[in-house]
Amino acid sequence: MNTAVYMDYNASTPIRPEAAAAVAAALAIGGNPSSVHGHGRAARRLVEDAREQVASAIGAPAAAIVFTSGATEANTLALRGSGRARLLVSAIEHDSVRHAVPGAEIIPVTPAGIIDLEALKALLASDSRPALVSIMLANNETGVIQPVAEAAGIAHAHGALAHSDAVQALGRIPVDVNALGVDLLSLSAHKLGGPAGVGALYRREGIALAAQLLGGGQERSQRAGTENVSGIAGFGAAAALVAGDLENARRLADLRNGLETKIKSVAPHAVLFGTGAPRLPNTVYVALPDISAETQIMTLDLAGVSVSAGAACSSGKVKISAVLSAMGAPADLARSAIRVSLGWASTPADIDRFMTAWTGLSARSLAA
Ligand SMILES: Cc1ncc(COP(=O)(O)O)c(C=O)c1O
Questions:
Q1: What pLDDT band is residue 85 in, cutting at 50, 70 and 90?
Q2: pLDDT (tens digit per residue) in 16-45
Q3: Could you count the other beta carbons within 10 Å of the beta carbon of residue 63?
Q4: Any bridge partners for residue 165, and if so which?
Q5: Which of 90, 163, 167 to probe ligand 1 with, by most ligand atoms within 8 A of CB?
């Protein structure tokens, strides 16, 4: 049994028991939802029930939900499928948005990590070709909540479509497609207690998208391929828990705020990112000057605490977080930033375990 403490919910959440049970039940049924026989009809029922559950979690009609293999595919379908000549994406988007098309135009963010709405207006006014604006609802590194409703209003005033990657938001803050006014919205099951490998794109009625996967015509010809029935059933079960998750958000915020207070008391020189803006209740993004994120993660891992780094190391080179760069954080500080993210199974004991391991590191930082 893994006794390590998991504090990396923004990377992926542990599966909720209800979602795991729904996956297992669907696997036991089997069948292809396109088949007309009883097994096929049972599989179809699971898919359509889950569609209702996912739709209702975001205030959408079931027919507006297209199931995909995850948010990466949902983002690709939204951005590539829109066929818009101009794609305007914020500087802090997930790579699956920033790299969905070559030549996307970048909307800058303020040092607090919030998109610059004036810059968005200027970009839209500078060119009249049809555009799509993509702004995430909450950032995966800082947790900063973006003014998506305002951005959607600006996009529409310029005749542009509005897309939002709401992967990190669902289950943590209310997500309502009508209140947000977006045309397209991406979701991923494994960020809210469902299984990985399944997600959805919300598509407002009347928005035409070019399918990116062609074949059997599933998902109203928006996404070919036999549906991942068990994954979709698990996604539906997790989405059905969203209302309860929102009630628990206060508990998470208390845990998170307590953690940040402890961090500041043992290491007043530590730098917390995103605190000057509205944030998700579960995310702490902290830099410990002079101690690399890699060292912190390895030390925490040895102590049985799983967190992630703001910087990614590939081929021996440390790549600084694009989010922190866009916020204008100095490179040295960005290299020492780690992200601690909490969720449905987090407890005060997890916070204590983290602090025990991290306090030793912070003492080394003071000595450095
Ligand atoms: C903000 C954001 N968008 C998209 C994705 C990609 O989601 P998926 O793993 O379902 O493809 C992630 C996952 O890391 C994410 O954090």
A1: very high
A2: 999 999 999 999 999 999 999 999 999 999
A3: 11
A4: 186
A5: 167
| Cα 356 to middle of ligand 1, angstroms | 30
What atom of ligand 1 comes closest to residue 11's alpha carbon?
14
> How many A from CA of 102 to the centre of ligand 1?
19
pLDDT tens-digit series, residues 178-193: 999 999 999 999 999 9
Residue with the smallest CA separation from ligand 1 atom 3 is 94
Residue 204, token pair as written in the block? 């407002």
Query: Do residues 311 and 319 lie in contact, with contact meaning Cβ atoms separated by under 8 Å?
Result: yes
Q: Which stretches does DSSP call E strand in 189-239?
A: 199-203
**Cβ atoms 306, 6 nearer than 8 A:** yes
With CA atoms as reference, report the closest residue to 144 among 283, 344, 248: 283
pTM comes to: 0.96
Query: Residues 164, 184: contact at Cβ < 8 Å?
Result: yes
Strand stretches in 255-350, DSSP E = 271-272, 283-287, 305-306, 308-309, 312-314, 317-319, 337-341
Residue nearest to atom 14 of ligand 1 (CA): 11
Average pLDDT over residues 338-351: 97
- SS3 call for 290: coil
The pLDDT of residue 360: 87
Active-site residues: which are they? Answer: 313
Tell me what pLDDT residue 311 has: 57
Alpha helix (H) ranges present in 141-292?
Answer: 148-157, 177-180, 218-221, 229-239, 242-247, 249-266
Confidence grade of residue 3 (pLDDT, cut at 50, 70, 90): confident
